[in-house]
Design a protein that fits this description.
With about 210 residues, the chain is α/β, with parallel strands linked by helices. Helix content is about 30%, strand content about 30%. The chain is built from 6 helices and 13 strands. The strands form 3 sheets. Strands 1, 4, 5, 6, 7, 8, 9, 10 and 11 form a 9-stranded mixed β-sheet that branches. A two-stranded antiparallel sheet has the order 2-3. Helix 4 links the parallel strand 9 (about 135) and strand 10 (about 155-160). Helix 1 runs antiparallel to helix 2 (about 25-45) and helix 2 packs across helix 3. Bound molecules: 1-O-pyrophosphono-5-O-phosphono-alpha-D-ribofuranose and uracil. Uracil binds near residues 80 and 135. GO terms for molecular function: GTP binding; magnesium ion binding; uracil phosphoribosyltransferase activity. Pathway: Pyrimidine metabolism; UMP biosynthesis via salvage pathway; UMP from uracil: step 1/1. Catalyzes the conversion of uracil and 5-phospho-alpha-D-ribose 1-diphosphate (PRPP) to UMP and diphosphate.
């Protein structure tokens, strides 16, 4: 079963509370999503491999380290996943970015795919799937499945807020995928929104409501 890592930090709790607040505007919301994403990016890359190389500081010669593992692919689930792209690119500027478009049907709550474009060599890359919200898990599971169909074998999922239901679904359907989240919330409500959550992440990011 994939492991779940939760960022446990007082500053994260502080920032998530600002995200939750319905009076927080889109600009501040976007900026906090980016900040938290940067921390998630560091956490999700703890197992990345390094190689040594020689460097010279102004003081002496020493050993430097550089990332030496597979190249990286970042896959935001549209639309809200776009809010996390800048944070990841800041940490991994050489990463390639693919996009998968999914929206939840308002009646069935099942994800509907409307776009898919990923780097050609995605099957050789470590792929980070990003979406602020993991609710029922339907969108994440379908996105991961599509990437597997395209040959991807190394996948991680990064979310800002997750519900237990979504984590369970990903663990059951994709036991090879580790999940990194900033906050585990209580449950889903009858409309499949995360409680207490932060509402519709896409609308909050882009001011569409
Ligand atoms: C939201 C969110 C996830 C999905 C999570 O997207 O960004 O993609 O819901 O829900 P799930 O785990 O139950 O699938 P939404 O469908 O609202 O589309 P949007 O990003 O275009 O607003
Ligand atoms: N998608 C969102 O944006 N928010 C939720 O709470 C659930 C799904």
């Amino acid at each position: 079963m994939g492991k779940v890592t939760i960022l446990d930090h007082p500053v994260i709790k502080h920032k998530i509370s600002i995200l939750r607040d319905k009076n927080t505007g889109s600009n501040e919301f976007r900026s906090i999503i980016k900040e938290i994403t940067i921390l998630l990016a560091y956490e999700a890359s703890k197992d990345f491999t390094l190689e040594e190389y020689d460097i010279e500081t102004p003081i002496c010669k020493t050993t430097g380290y550089r990332l030496s593992g597979k190249k990286l692919g970042i896959i935001p689930i549209l639309r809200a996943g776009l809010g996390m792209v800048d944070g990841l690119i800041e940490v991994f500027p050489a990463a390639r970015v693919g996009h998968i478009g999914m929206y939840r049907d308002e009646k069935t709550m099942k994800p509907i795919e409307y776009y898919l474009k990923i780097p050609k060599d995605s099957n050789k890359r470590d792929m980070l799937v990003i979406d602020p919200m993991l609710a029922t898990g339907g969108s994440a599971c379908d996105a991961i499945q599509r990437l597997k169909e395209k040959g991807c074998t190394s996948l991680k999922l990064l979310n800002i807020i997750a519900a237990p239901e979504g984590i369970k679904k990903v663990q059951e359907e994709h036991p090879d995928v580790d999940i990194y989240i900033a906050q585990l919330d209580e449950k889903l409500n009858d409309d499949c929104y995360i409680v207490p959550g932060l509402g519709d992440a896409g609308d909050r990011l882009f001011g569409t409501k």
